[in-house]
Amino acid sequence: MKTLSDLRPTYVVGIGLHPYQNRSDTTYVTLGLRAVREALDDAGIAWQAVESAYVGSALLGMAVGAGMLRYLGATGIPFAQVENASASGSTSFRQAVYEVAAGLADVSLAMGVDKAEPWRVAPAKAGIASLADRLSAPFTHFAMLTEKYMTDSGATPEQVAKVAVKNHRNGAFNPYAQRQKVRTLEEVMAPPVISGALTRLQCTPVGEGAAAVIVMSEEGMKRHGIPMRRAVQVLASASRSEQPFGRENGDSALTKATTEQAYEQSGLGPKDIDIVELHDAFSIEELLYLEVMGFCREGEAAAELEMGSFDIGGRVAVSPSGGLIAMGHPLGPTGTGQVVEVVGQLRGEAGQRQHPNARVGLTHMVGIGPVCLVHILRAATA
How far is Cα 316 from Cα 295, in angstroms, rounded to an integer? Predict the structure, then answer.
């Protein structure tokens, strides 16, 4: 089976965001168009140069793209709406990347947009009840994983909470983040408790926002006069779904399998990665995923975090955007927004959040299904 490494080189050349925020009266069209216009301006191209578009959305309903992109001009381009739960934006990015890599287009838009609407989850309508449907909500599931991790590794509740301390600190310097306030350990551990050891500030807020990226081939860059110094190459795009993993935690096992696929595609490994943007909807997820991705040994992520290994300026900067905990998690845009952060870091344009000498970045999202997507990007001039 062919992978991205077998196709033509593909680059991100434009990035844009609408700030993630609490629920408001702002229409999704306003949210989305701001992100797209920022991405077009960043790339230095007009809307008419875009040859296809993929719009990630989990909560808005049908015809999101048609109802929004028409306000940029009716150019007749093909576009599709992509829904893949929390991984919707990551999947829209993957679709645009593969379309350009395959030579079907030279310029493609990948974006995500969502409003804080009620969740309507299809598996609940499957007519097949789970034994745990009434017993375990997501936060309960991750609270139990937190207890297991602390028991197995010897980590303390304070060490787990320091994930959120780090990510709130990063988010405080991100003008697009939903939470922009430095938090002390005492504040993070203070009530209200959501479940088990997980407090409110260790859980992601679900709000609204938008993110957009422009993906191009080298031919497209030459045609539109885009210099290679501003381009970030997509080296790997890996996507996997559920399979039997035995007694392992499913999200962690799926993350490990997907990340290994991305490493194989790119020819790189964890020691080559400078930036990681991962799915930290709950603080424990960062520790679990960093271990299975190979950034530290099993049971050692909490100690590595405490030593500063995952800080901006540390061995690898993890969630310099603030992650889902501080940046926010509006679902549709989240995965695309991770790409925006990585591209900004690899260009050296992240301001106070800039990780020194960042050349390679990885993005990771999981979604209901479960599904998992991992992308690896590298500065084109690296």
Answer: 8
141 found inside a domain: no
**Which residues neighbour 120 within 8 Å (Cβ) at sequence distance 6 or greater?**
59
The CATH number of whichever domain residue 240 belongs to comes to 3.40.47.10
- pTM (predicted TM-score): 0.95
Residue 143 located in a structural domain? no
Domain limits for position 95: 4-118+205-379
pLDDT digits (tens, 9 = 90+) for 256-291: 999 999 999 999 999 999 999 999 999 999 999 999
- Phi and psi for 291 in degrees, rounded to 5? -70, -45
Tally the residues of the chain.
382
Q: What is the spatial distance between Cα 202 and Cα 302, in angstroms, rounded to a whole number? A: 15
pLDDT in tens, 328-359: 999 999 999 999 999 999 999 999 999 999 99
User: Do residues 114 and 129 lie in contact, with contact meaning Cβ atoms separated by under 8 Å?
Assistant: no
Count structural domains, the chain.
1
Q: Could you tell me which of 325, 152, 133 has the C-alpha nearest to residue 252?
A: 152
CB of 21 closer than 8 Å to CB of 115? no
What type of residue is 301? Answer: A
In a domain, 18, yes or no: yes
Instruction: Classify residue 164: in a domain, yes or no.
Output: no
Region of 232 on the Ramachandran plot (φ > 0 left; ψ -120 to 50 alpha; else beta):
beta
Spatial CA neighbour of 72 closest among 55, 50, 87: 50
